[in-house]
């Protein structure tokens, strides 16, 4: 096999995240030579013996995602996985019921103890199932007739994207809860479930109508697309990392070279006098890898966090980093009460498929700073466990906390983006041969801008190929059968 140094590569991608992995597969099926470099540092927290003693069983019995995302059935990723044939190597689980903790029902009562003194006993709130659509609103006996009419008016508007042009100019930057109360007379107790459907990491007074309305639309229009009672799915094993792995396997079959633990140390670009003219393919740059190896490549692509500082000086000005604090816990119950079948004839929801019998995994996150966040998230998990009315009350067996930092150049508002704005960050460095993908946003649902970003970069580097490059992520079976794409 030739050394990496002996080839001038067409494309080098830094990182093995979802955007890079999908782009690598796309490029390789367009007959480019590509290499993908990734580095990761994973520290083993405890031995299997230690885990077994804690009541967890063996560590390989669990699959935990560090960046969990829901995938709505309306997501542009779903048809892309089908057209690229990647879906053949994936399994998905339906996301079942949605719940909200109703703290308004929490009360305090006095009771006499054995010594005759008075003690205050706190009655916790309850978990309430969120109506998933108009039919659920009609059948919810806890909603009075007047509130039902108000909710139906809002849900009708939210499901009609053509109505947005009349709403956004006036209400777009105003708080979502203000819009619900002023325009539809929806009470605060019913605003909370609607806010939950937006999956916003921010409180309702900081969540704008422009952010919330398209996401409620996404939720409503996704329900029933692939089956009754659910509107989102999860990869069965490993979250989005499973999709990345499948794309990498298929890319390797197509001639890609994947090099792990070899991040980019620095980039030496051609001198100014030898740089390419506008519209021409960039001249090769020298890339120094960790460990001292030097390779040459025409295109260098990656997220700003995966590229060295000397390669990212042309990136647009970033806003302050947003810190998302995560607390993931393995608990002593699968919490099956929270996962009833969504509807007659629907597939089992994700919660009833457990990796280790009698256990469950809870993911929590908040935008609060870590010191306050961990207290809040631990309290949220304890409250959830005490609200499912299981005896004995489930307990936390193991937990992991970490902070995920994310730079968001411009806050997302609409789910429909302009490709020109998506590509602006890439075009700024096109002549240098360095193109930037956006870091995967730490949202609870995968956003469509991930694939729009991948497509924009692909169109830039294949602009001279015209019709020969084929459709975006539309692949025919390779000669020899589907197994050549890495299927087992």
Describe the structure.
With 488 residues, the chain is α/β, with parallel strands linked by helices. 28% of the residues lie in helices and 19% in strands. It contains 13 helices and 17 strands. Strand 6 and strand 7 form a beta hairpin. Residues 40-48, 106-123, 410-428 and 482-488 have low confidence and may be disordered.
Would you summarize the structure shown here?
The protein has 488 residues and is an alpha/beta fold. Helix content is 28%, strand content 19%. The strands form five sheets. Strands 1, 2, 10, 11, 12, 13 and 17 form a seven-stranded mixed beta sheet that branches. Strands 3-9-4 form a three-stranded antiparallel beta sheet. Strands 15-14-16 form a three-stranded antiparallel beta sheet, with helices on one face.
Chart the SSEs and their pairings.
Blueprint: E1 8-14, H1 18-28, E2 34-38, H2 48-53, E3 71-72, H3 77-83, E4 92-94, E5 99-102, E6 107-112, E7 118-123, E8 126-129, H4 134-139, H5 145-158, H6 164-171, H7 176-184, H8 188-197, H9 209-222, E9 232-235, H10 240-253, E10 257-260, E11 264-268, E12 285-289, E13 294-302, E14 322-331, E15 360-366, H11 370-387, E16 396-406, H12 419-427, E17 434-436, H13 449-461
Parallel strand pairs: 1-2, 1-13, 2-10, 13-17
Antiparallel strand pairs: 3-9, 4-9, 5-8, 6-7, 11-12, 12-13, 14-15, 14-16
Helix pairs in contact: 1-10, 1-13, 12-13
């Amino acid at each position: 096999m030739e050394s990496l140094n002996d080839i001038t590569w067409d494309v080098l991608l830094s990182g093995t995240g979802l955007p890079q992995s999908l782009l690598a597969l796309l490029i390789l099926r367009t007959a480019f030579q590509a290499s993908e470099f990734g580095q990761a540092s994973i520290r083993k927290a405890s031995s299997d013996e230690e885990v077994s003693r804690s009541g967890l069983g063996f560590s390989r019995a669990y699959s935990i995602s560090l960046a969990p995302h829901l995938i709505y059935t309306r997501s542009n990723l779903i048809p892309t996985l089908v057209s690229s044939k990647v879906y053949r190597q994936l399994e998905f689980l339906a996301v079942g019921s949605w719940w909200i903790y109703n703290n308004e029902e929490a009360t305090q009562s006095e009771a006499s103890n054995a010594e005759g003194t008075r003690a205050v006993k706190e009655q916790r709130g309850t978990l309430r199932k969120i109506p998933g659509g108009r039919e659920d609103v009609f059948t919810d006996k806890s909603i009075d007739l007047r509130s039902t009419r108000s909710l139906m008016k809002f849900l009708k508007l939210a499901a009609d994207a053509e109505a947005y042009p009349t709403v956004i100019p006036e209400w777009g930057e105003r708080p979502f809860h203000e819009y619900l109360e002023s325009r539809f007379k929806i009470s605060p107790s019913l605003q909370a479930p609607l806010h939950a459907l937006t999956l916003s990491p921010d409180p309702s007074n900081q969540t704008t109508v422009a952010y919330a309305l398209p996401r409620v639309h996404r939720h409503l229009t996704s329900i029933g697309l692939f089956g009754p009672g659910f509107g989102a799915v999860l990869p069965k094993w490993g979250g989005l990392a499973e999709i990345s792995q499948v794309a990498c396997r298929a890319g390797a079959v197509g001639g890609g070279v994947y090099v792990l633990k070899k991040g980019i140390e620095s980039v030496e670009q051609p001198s100014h006098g030898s740089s390419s003219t506008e519209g021409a393919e960039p001249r090769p740059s020298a890339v120094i890898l960790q460990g001292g190896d030097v390779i040459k490549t025409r295109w260098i692509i990656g997220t700003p966090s995966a590229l060295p500082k000397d390669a990212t000086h042309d990136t647009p000005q970033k806003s302050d980093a947003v810190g998302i604090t995560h607390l993931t816990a393995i608990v002593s119950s699968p919490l099956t009460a929270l996962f009833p079948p969504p509807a007659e004839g629907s597939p089992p929801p994700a919660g009833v498929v457990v990796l280790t019998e009698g256990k469950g995994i809870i993911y929590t996150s908040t935008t609060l700073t870590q010191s306050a966040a961990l207290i809040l998230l631990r309290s949220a998990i304890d409250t959830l466990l005490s609200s499912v009315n299981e005896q004995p009350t489930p307990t936390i067996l193991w937990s992991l906390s970490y902070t995920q930092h994310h730079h968001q150049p411009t806050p997302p508002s609409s789910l429909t983006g302009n490709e020109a704005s998506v590509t602006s960050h890439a075009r700024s460095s096109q002549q240098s041969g360095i193109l930037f993908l956006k870091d995967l946003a730490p949202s609870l649902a995968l956003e469509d801008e991930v694939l729009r970003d991948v497509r924009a970069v692909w169109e830039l580097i294949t602009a001279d190929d015209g019709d020969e490059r084929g459709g975006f992520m539309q692949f025919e079976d390779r000669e020899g059968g589907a197994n050549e794409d890495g299927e087992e």
